[in-house]
Prior knowledge:
Elements: H1 6-19, H2 23-35, H3 40-61, H4 63-71, H5 93-98, E1 114-117, E2 127-130, H6 132-148, E3 158-162, H7 174-182, E4 185-189, H8 195-208, E5 212-215, H9 217-230, E6 239-242, H10 249-259, E7 262-269, E8 273-278, E9 285-287, E10 292-298, E11 301-302, E12 308-315, E13 326-334, E14 348-355, E15 359-361, E16 367-369, H11 370-377, E17 383-392, E18 395-402, H12 404-422, E19 427-432, E20 447-449
Parallel strand pairs: 3-4, 3-5, 5-6, 6-7, 17-20, 18-19
Antiparallel strand pairs: 1-2, 7-8, 8-9, 9-14, 10-11, 10-12, 12-13, 13-14, 15-16, 17-18
Helix pairs in contact: 2-6, 3-4, 8-9, 9-10
Amino acid sequence: MIPLNNSIFKSFIAxxxxxxxxxxxxxxxxxxxxxxxxxxxxxxEIQIRxxxxxxxxxxxxxxxxxRLFKQNGVxxxxxxxxxxxxxxxxxxxxxxxxxxxxxISIKKSRNNLLKNYTGxxxxxxxxxxxxxxxxxxxxxxxxxAWYIIPGFDYGTRTALLWSAHRDIRSNQSLLYQIKKYLDxxxxxxxxKINDIKLEIFIKYIDKFKPFILRGYPSILCYxxxxxxxxxxxxxxxxxxxTTAEVLHEDQREKLAKVFKCHILNSYGCREVSQIAMExxxxxxxxxxxxxxxxxxxxxxxxxxxxxxxxxxxxxxxxYGMPFIRYEVEDMARRSSIDKCGCNRxxxxxxNIIGREKGFIITPNGNNIYFxxxxxxFYGFPGVEEYxxxxxxxxxIVILVxxxxxxxxxxxxxxxxxxxxxxxxxxxxxxxxxxxxxRSDTGKYQRVISKVH
Length: 452
């Protein structure tokens, strides 16, 4: 298989978008390519202008927001700055589920909107709708994040390791395979990882010779460990982009050691698409400011630099079903850096911490975040993966993938140590498993609590 060059890709994608009458996409992409270098103040002016338009439209055309504003004594004219956003109550998944019909614009038909949904990894799946204006900005934002910010042109050959069921066709027609090949990306189904699949992935990489390798951090690390263990030579990778899961420092180190290139973190979710992207300067993640307003909050107040807050996102482009102050249920650390060395004006998030529920509560009332477990398991002999599950307030189960002969004795020592540190009223069990189950979207979470 001879890899295609970017000129062939561009010709194909141009014809494809012209056929679909998506001329606005090209205009949007060009706009984002230029505006990423605007001063931050100018980007905030763009955000405020778009926010005012969205709020006015939502008040007039979206029954949920019209009622919400009335109930809280808020009028669109009251929203004059980014700080004024705090006058609007936060939107949660539960509120969306309870008000679905009232959240869709009365000027939009569901038949003309894209239906989308989350995987429901933390509960009931969330269904929502997105308009074509949103799609143009979302697609442009992905290209900006996954190609342009890392330093490539769109269409640069990419190998994608993915396992979200809805994104991978089980029965791939020849036409579908050709289309995916022409658009510069080869997608490799990473469900149920084993040595046979890893060999197939490596053969794909050897033939396709991608410049970019993108996927879940946990799955990419599976591949990296296999390559390292068997000393396999693969074509040079220029950049590894992690997405969909938290990128932990031990994973970053492993990927950098094996692939010897920039390891860049990407952050987004299906509800609002791409939110932020790390650049090769490694100063944090740049927010897609023309697409999103991102707040990092502690009880509706902005956290100060270096502190951790709940991620709340306002998407500025979805008029079909607006998401204003949407609580993503992730935690992130606010950056202390005013401007990145890459000279982009896009504001920065220091790093993504993980799910709001990525901690356990001990019987004595202490919150133990995933960092505690990361420290305990960092470099632990014989452990490839682990998952901490709090089944009950006084019961924790730790699932371990690895070499039981190498790790069992030390694991028992660690179990007793953690029981002492976390409190005598908590029980910890260790179970060795062949593989840790992913969610329907393919995500792997290291700490899960069923208590809160």
